[in-house]
Design brief:
785 residues, alpha/beta, TIM Barrel, Rossmann fold, Immunoglobulin-like, 3 domains, six-stranded mixed beta sheet, four-stranded parallel beta sheet, 21 helices, globular, Cellulose_Degrad_GH3
Length: 785
């Protein structure tokens, strides 16, 4: 029996295995590892054809795109399909290099039968990293069960323009909140060892959410300081805390540099400054976009060369530039072979880290056991309840036990489709099953699955708000329902029936909504940007008509978009925000409305009064909170309608006994305070710590979030919190672009939101200027006693 090659020896160090395998590879085999195929490209007349796979992958392949998010397969069949693809490359290619299957997982694994959790913005609204980690652990278990080892999540974009359709996929507007939630998600997804985890992808590097006009893919104009301090910081935080496996580029150009082809962004900033050493994977078709969108390349080969030189290692979702066009660049001497080798090494290293050479297959028969379990649904329900944000309450909530008749109104009240975000299954798959013309609609060619593989509107059991309330309220409470109107359109014919029902009710729950998705008609989602942030259709008119009845209105906004709700606030007795909530949306909402769960969601974004205010966010620099000379607009205050971090409770919390121990620019600052529950019901408070550098060498933010703690308090209970702030957390890029902490006066403030500060104190840090690197920032730690 011959000796096994070194690269197949699991006892050998990974770097030695990579070097040994690379040395045996031809150029064709190397380039194959940088490429990708849609999973559905191997399906012939409704069945998997291994001969087609052999023909398409003679040298193997780096990745396979989306089995779950392109087909209608159940977990067992999905796992079997993955095994069959793996078998082809392992047994019918010379070197037998296993494939990686990548999938989407922003609000749960995008796969039939997988748990549908709240969309990314909803997870951020919990301000609960521990819960988000649990959600990601469920996603990991389900992906592992079907052999999907690479997730294109989390979204770490800093979203400060609500016109942009993808805000719902993000964790909000603040880099510290995003970095904290993103860290928890990656830790849950990757686990302690990638050999038993799923590789996460931080996306989209960099500045993607700040496009001109809020238009998807639009150019981004950012200075180097803001680019690093704000937009790179969530990526830097997740890199520091987790060693995230992969990064995905942004579609946009930054100051004229398309990210997919920019060494300044993907190498100098990402690798040299922030220390990332893993593979960069292309956002779909972004290599081709260097040619046909940004127009910085004339041919596919030139686009491939620019991208690879920039540090982009893998082309997704299919190989168009990194195959023969890239090979021609190498053979013509326009691209050094060593550049290809560097990228291939990164890909191979990831495959060894994932343990794919040792365990390329999964037990297909066991896969269904980790889908739709009671514990997973309970976690989804908890996530919805904790993500529900109570914006206003005139004592109408929780619903009184004495109520006898409830009117449930609105297009969002009983439509499971409206519980879906644009990256939820099956809403995301409308791209395929609802539009055979998907190439024309999006420019993205998706091979059509057929037969048993064909996708469709396959929902897990989804609980709508109406169903949730029916299950939650006493059987003696009469519940009347009327839709009132659709999400879109100008049909008001349902108003009369809704008004009659509300007039006879003790209280009305009005669920207005958006519709998230990719293919229009929708109101939010990727490539679905907006100039008007009012509630869509005639829903605001419906609320006005119902308000005239004088019945207390509980208005729930179920939408992935941040809407302008100034008129709605005045008409509602209570107002709640619920981002796309997934399968347990109705139950989680009902838990909050009935008081079973005390609301504790907090806004991860600022809510503008009008679209004309944009941008309005917590991180404005000195002077950015007012308009000179009169502090406001001629027609509006400059302040948001609801500030970042806002969210009410059914109880009240008291802050006291603030103490700050500080010394100089080399020592950590210790901030201690007490928070007590001054009300009559148990509740969770999200204590937020902000800082203001009073005088600095560049304009600094008035409210810089340094950290937060979510704490549970029984009535009358008081807990002591200690925030430990390392001086590197106060660092910024000075006029010479050195990353420094300067001595001086700093105001530390704590409160329930950026606008609801309860205690504050200014201290002086002495000493000299201390220089750091951004990748060395030490995060704020919190101790709760």
């Amino acid at each position: 029996m011959g000796q096994i090659p070194l690269y197949r020896d699991p006892r050998a160090p990974i770097e030695q295995r990579v070097e040994d395998l690379l040395a045996q590879m031809t150029l064709d085999e190397k380039l194959a590892q940088l490429g990708c195929y849609w999973s559905t490209a191997f399906i012939s007349t409704g069945t998997f054809n291994p001969e087609v796979a052999v023909e398409k992958m003679p040298y193997g392949i780096g990745q396979i795109t989306r089995i779950g998010a392109a087909t209608g397969l159940h977990p067992q069949e999905s796992a079997a399909f993955m095994n069959a693809l793996q078998k082809v490359v392992l047994e019918r290619t010379r070197l037998g290099i296993p494939i990686i299957v990548h999938e989407e997982s922003t609000g749960g694994f995008c796969h039939r039968d997988a748990t549908v959790f709240p969309q990314g913005l909803g997870l951020a609204a919990t301000w609960n990293p521990d819960l988000v980690k649990q959600v990601a652990e469920v996603i990991r278990s389900q992906m592992l069960a079907v052999g999907a080892r690479h997730a294109l999540a989390p979204v770490l974009d800093v979203a400060r323009d609500p016109r942009w359709g993808r805000v719902e996929e993000t964790y909000g507007e603040d880099p510290v909140l995003i970095g904290t939630i993103g860290t928890a998600y990656v830790q849950g997804l990757q686990g302690d060892d990638l050999a038993h985890g799923v590789a996460a992808t931080g996306k989209h590097f960099l500045g993607y959410a700040l496009s001109e006009g809020g238009r998807n893919w639009g150019p981004v104009q950012l200075g180097p300081r803001e680019l690093r301090e704000v937009y790179a910081e969530p990526f830097a935080a997740v890199l520091r805390n987790t060693g995230i496996a992969t990064i995905m580029n942004s579609y946009a150009s930054v100051d004229g540099l398309p990210c997919a082809g920019s060494p300044a962004i993907l190498t100098d900033l990402l690798r040299t400054e922030l220390g990332f050493d893993g593979p960069v994977v292309a956002d779909y078709a972004s290599v081709e976009m260097l040619m046909n969108y940004h127009r910085v390349a004339a041919t596919p080969g030139e686009a491939a060369r620019l991208a690879l030189l920039a540090g982009l290692d893998m082309e997704l979702p299919t190989t168009n530039c990194y195959g023969d066009p890239l090979k021609a660049e190498v053979e013509a001497g326009r691209l050094a072979p060593e550049v290809v080798d560097t990228a291939v090494c990164r890909v191979l290293r990831l495959k060894f880290q994932l343990g794919l050479f040792e365990q390329p297959y999964v037990d297909a028969g066991a896969a269904p056991a980790v889908f739709q379990t009671p514990d997973q649904r309970a976690l989804a329900r908890q996530a919805v309840a904790q993500s529900t944000i109570l914006l206003k309450n005139n004592s109408v909530l929780p619903l009184a036990p004495t109520i006898k008749r409830v009117a449930v109104i609105g297009p969002g009240a009983d439509d499971q489709r409206l519980l879906q975000g644009d990256y939820h299954y099956p809403a995301h798959l409308e791209l395929i099953y609802a539009a055979p013309q998907n190439t024309e609609a999006t420019g993205l060619t998706v091979p059509q699955a057929s037969g048993d593989y064909a996708p469709g509107p396959f929902y897990t059991p989804h609980v709508t708000p109406l169903a949730g309330l029916r299950a939650a309220l006493d059987k003696d409470v009469e519940i009347d329902y009327a839709k009132g109107c659709e999400v879109l359109g100008d049909d008001r014919s349902g108003f009369e029936a809704a008004v009659q029902i509300v007039s006879a009710a003790d209280v009305a729950v009005v669920v207005v909504a958006g519709r998230s998705g990719l293919l229009r008609p929708v109101t939010s989602g990727e490539a679905n940007d907006a100039t008007n942030l009012d509630l869509p259709g005639v829903q605001q008119e419906l609320i006005a008509a119902l308000a005239a009845c004088k019945t207390p209105l509980v208005v729930v906004v179920l939408s992935g978009r941040i809407h302008t709700l100034a008129s709605v606030v005045n008409q509602a007795s209570a107002l709640l925000q619920l981002f796309p909530a997934g399968e347990e949306g109705g139950n989680g909402l009902a838990d909050v409305l009935t008081g079973k769960v005390n609301p504790s969601g907090r806004l991860p974004v600022s809510m503008p009064r009008s679209v004309g205010q944009i941008p309005v966010h917590v991180g404005y620099r000195a002077g950015g909170n007012r308009a000179m000379f009169f502090d406001d607009y001629i027609d509006s205050p400059t302040t948001p309608l609801f500030s970042f971090g806002h969210g009410l409770s059914y109880t009240t919390f008291a802050y006291s006994d603030l103490q700050i121990q500080s010394k100089d620019t080399t020592a950590s600052i210790e901030i201690t305070l007490k928070v007590g529950n001054a009300g009559e019901v148990a509740g969770d408070e999200v204590v937020q710590l902000y800082c203001c550098d009073r005088v600095a060498s560049v304009a600094r933010p008035d409210h810089l979030l340094l950290g937060f703690a979510r704490i549970s308090l029984e009535p009358g209970q008081t807990r002591q919190l200690t925030f430990k702030v390392h001086p590197s957390r106060l660092a910024f890029y000075d006029p010479s672009m050195r990353f420094v902490t300067e001595p001086g006066d700093f105001t530390f403030s704590l409160g329930a939101s950026a606008a609801d500060i309860r205690v504050a104190e200014t201290v002086t840090l002495t000493g000299s200027i201390v220089e750091y690197c951004q990748r060395e920032i030490v995060g704020t730690t919190i101790t709760v006693n």
